[in-house]
Structure formats: structure tokens, C-alpha cells
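Quick illustration, no need to memorize.
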Amino acid sequence: MTQKFSNPQGSSSSENNNAPVKKITPALLFSAVFVAVSFIVMLIPLALFNVAQVAAMLGKRIALSLMLVVSLSFFLFGILFSSLSIISMGVIVLFAIPFFMSAIYLREKRKHWLYAASVLFLPVILFFGFLSFTPTKLTVIDGEVKTQIHQEIALKKEELQSQFAGRKPTVKEVQTLAQYDQFKEQIDQIVAVPAVRSFLDYNSWQRMAFLVFGAGSSFFLIGLLISFANVVFVDFGFEQIERLRAVVNYVRRHPTSFSAQLTSVLFAMPMVRANRLETPILINQHATQSLGNGNQKLSILASLWKPLKPNNTIMWQGFSFKFEGMSAWNLRNFSLPLPLVLLAVAFVGTMAFWYGNLESIISSLQHTAFAPIFALMSVMSFVVITILALQGMFTIYKRVSTFLVLSFVFLFFILGSKASFGPYAILAAFGAVGLLDYVYDWRGRKLKS
């Protein structure tokens, strides 16, 4: 069920239709800054969330222009301050544009979320697939490849030195020479790391096991969490705007129930003036009192563990709106089938307890005919457990206070800093919350008013 209205009730057509739609607003500039900061701190899902909201409100062209401006700004500041790290951020933003816009297009057209997931997971699949299946041995990396890199660096240095022959080099030229030397040292240091040297000598199935049970699990977990969060956050961005559109449509039908100041602010939004108000959500009634504002006193426990609100209720500006319908993906209430989760946990646990350590797992996958089955099942089980942990993270975000959310974030970084067991400590902590949600429905997936 979708709604589409042409003119706001209680407002003149000349005021709302003939006036130009102002799209370049302070809010849009703030969004650009927010996207840039999100990329700097590598919170990619938050950047996608903001871009998705801009696309839902103002259109895909504005969202694309915003990302191009952010990328260009990184390039300009990088050139201005002679910083390769800032320029690299511009490259990352530019690289992310086709993936972001493809996911936004699929969400806007209400295609199945698996299509967007296949797009947003492509970088992770290609990267870890390259690590696993590239037939590169340590002897090649430590010999031919490293020698070739050293020769290329030496050639670049000679070209640069020839440019300032007979004169004193500038500060920028000296910095560039130092960067070449640093890059050469970094290559030597990376190849000298024991874990890297061992990884390069593994076969494909051993490498996959290393990414699940070994030190590579940290990078694998981060890549999966970012990719899954990207899919969820693009849906959240559109869902928030769809709910706001439903509120606008309801206020249009009942303008006398709201203050003139509220309606004027609401109808002045660029989204409303451009008549981008189609939504699958239909509000049928509202109340002026928010949920949970009764006479009961909040206990200390209630202040830490937030009460649930029904899934068919929108809280906005002191009003509660009851609605029908739901967003296209509805990933807010997504949960994996419990038997699949239990099977994944059982398989990973069995592998860990049966073999005892990484070395035993790696050696068992060297010549056995069942190595492909064990390796692929390990990867798929790790993916399922990561989704379970993400469900637990969202449960914590939805139910606990802001103070406790920050505490859990602090715990996340502490556990993640433990290289030996950090990834599985994170999966165990948040996965346990995700499992308990299946029993107690802490997210309120089935709650209706």
C-alpha cells in the first residue's frame, strides 16, 4: 500500500508548488561533513545511512553529487597539504560511490535486499577470495615480487632525484623520497611477519581456515560487520524517511489537529515541496501522549533497560502515530532461522574443541579430501555467527540506555584489542545476546499495539 498526495491541505498551492525547491540547504552541507567524517574514522555504514537519507529526501542525483563533492574535497585538501593519506580518502569515497548508489537504487525500487547485499558484499568477497585462492607462494613474494617492488621504488627515486640534480631539493621532494624509503621498509616488515609468511605457504583451504580460526579472523570479522551493517543501514535510512513521509501525509489529511507552526515547518521541507511523498506506510490514528508517559514511576532497572514500543507506532514531536504496512526490506526485525544459527555454532564449536588449536586445524586441511567441505562450512558458519552477533548488537542498541551503549562500545574495543581471542570474544558476547533475543524477544519483533 502506497500513498501519494499532490497538495498540502491547509496551504495555498502557490506557496507550495510555485515556489522553487531549495535543495542546497545547511542540512545538506552538514550531511556532506558527516559523510566525510564517517569515512575518516572508517564508519562506512554511517556514511551510507546518511547518503541513503539524502537520496530518499532529495533524490539520487543529489546523493551522487554529495559524494562527488566529498571525494573532490578530499583530493583538494590532500593536494593542498601534500598528504597522501587525505588523497587516499578521496580515492576510497570515489571507489564507494558505485556500490552506495547501486544499493540505494535497489532499495528505492523495492528490490529484494539480497540484491543489495550481493553488491555491498562484492569488495569483501573479492578481497578475501583473492587472499584465499591466489596461488602465490612465499618464495615468490619474498623473491621475485619483493625484488620487483624494490626496483620500481629505486627507479622512482632516481627519476625524482634527476629532477633536482644540481640544486637543493624542496621540502616536498625530500618528503617524497622519505615516503619511498618508508614504503620499502613496510614491504620488508610485512613479509617478515611470521603469520604472513605462514599464510603465504598455505593452500586455499588452509587460508580459509586461517581467516576463520586464526589471526585473520579479526580482519574477516570487521569486513563482514561493515558489509552487513551497510545493508541494514541503507534500509534504516530509507525507512526513517518513509515514516516521515507517512507523518506528512497524515498531517495533510488532518491539518487542524496540529499547530500551525508544526505544519508550516513540516510542509517547508524540500521533500514535501518536491512532492516526494510516496510511502508504503499508512497512519490511521495518532495520540498526543507518548508511550510510557503514564503514572508509573521508572525504576532504576527501567532507566537502564528501555521499554519497548510497538512496531506499528511512530514517535515524533510528542505524538504517537499508529500505522499499517511496513518498509520494503524491514531489516529492523530480521532474524536468521534459529536451527541454522545453532548448526553454525555447533560446527565451529566442534572444530575448535576437536582439534584444539589452529595448527591442528591447518595441518588437517593440507591433504585430506574433505578439506574443501570443512573450509567452506567453517566460512559459512562464521558468517552466520557474525549475523547473530549483529542481531545482538542491535538488540543492545534498541533496549539499553545510552550510557550502557557506550559501555558496550568500550567493551567491544577492549575485546577486539586481544588479537588471540578478540574476534571470538566479541562473537560470544554479542552472539549470546542474539540467542537470548530468540527466547525473550527483546527486540519486540512480534509486539503490536
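The two ends are 20 Å apart (CA to CA).
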